[in-house]
């Protein structure tokens, strides 16, 4: 689980390393849970899942955390992203401010992958916020009917797409982001004749699809529309995501798959979820 500083998020590699060197992961993570020294590591109750005996560990030398209970782990950037609901770029800015390190300009020409990754993360944040909005109540009710609590929905990063043609498009415009990047990952579609953009995902629960590295790379929509359209709509293949290579929930099921010695392939997202929940 080694962290690689290959200029993630378009940031300079040295800059990211300086942040890592300047901040004390025990102090940062210690704000969310009480950490006690245990050998060369620190232990505490996991800030990501409910537990009575500590299975959450922090390795201060390597700057990594890992929970033996829920399997969450990563570096300090991952921790801040997950705990504060930030994108990678925002987490870097947050920690740089903590460390009092001035934030340099990001590389103008960053790889397409990281640009698309940022677009996916921004969209994810947007969908998650929608689920907590008044309009998201419908989505929450549906999830409840499938045995998914509000807390679990949050943990799994579910979102909500309003019954609207341009909710995401307007959000992208509002933030002045490059809409082409969202088109490349299939979240917005360009109308062939008018040239205007509209949302792919409308009126349904948005399910994030994570990479093995625990980053969101695509989405699926469980449509709640009453018309005859498909129940599930997936992100199309993109530079970030190739269908068939990624199984939703796999990154979270990894531990149990290892324990069982084989992967149980299941149809449908909620089957994966109920497996994970079992
Ligand atoms: Zn945990």
- What would the CATH topology of the largest domain be? DNA primase DNAg catalytic core, N-terminal domain
Gyration radius, in Å: 19 Å
**Bound small-molecule species:** zinc ion
Strand content: 15-25%
Determine and state the CATH class of the largest domain. Answer: Alpha Beta
The CATH architecture of the largest domain comes to Alpha-Beta Complex
Please tell me what the overall shape is: globular
**Widest sheet, order of strands:** 1-2-3-4-5
- On the 0 to 100 scale, the average pLDDT is 82
Number of domains: 2
Portion of residues within helices: 25-40%
User: What are the low-pLDDT stretches, counting only 5+ consecutive residues below 50?
Assistant: 1-6, 253-268
Q: Structural class, from helix and strand content?
A: alpha+beta
List the helices and strands and how they pair.
Elements: H1 13-22, H2 25-29, E1 36-38, E2 41-44, E3 56-59, E4 64-67, E5 73-75, H3 76-84, H4 88-99, H5 112-132, H6 137-145, H7 150-155, E6 159-161, H8 167-174, H9 179-184, E7 188-190, E8 197-199, E9 204-210, E10 216-223, E11 232-234, H10 250-260, H11 269-277
Antiparallel strand pairs: 1-2, 2-3, 3-4, 4-5, 6-9, 7-8, 9-10, 10-11
The structure holds zinc ion.
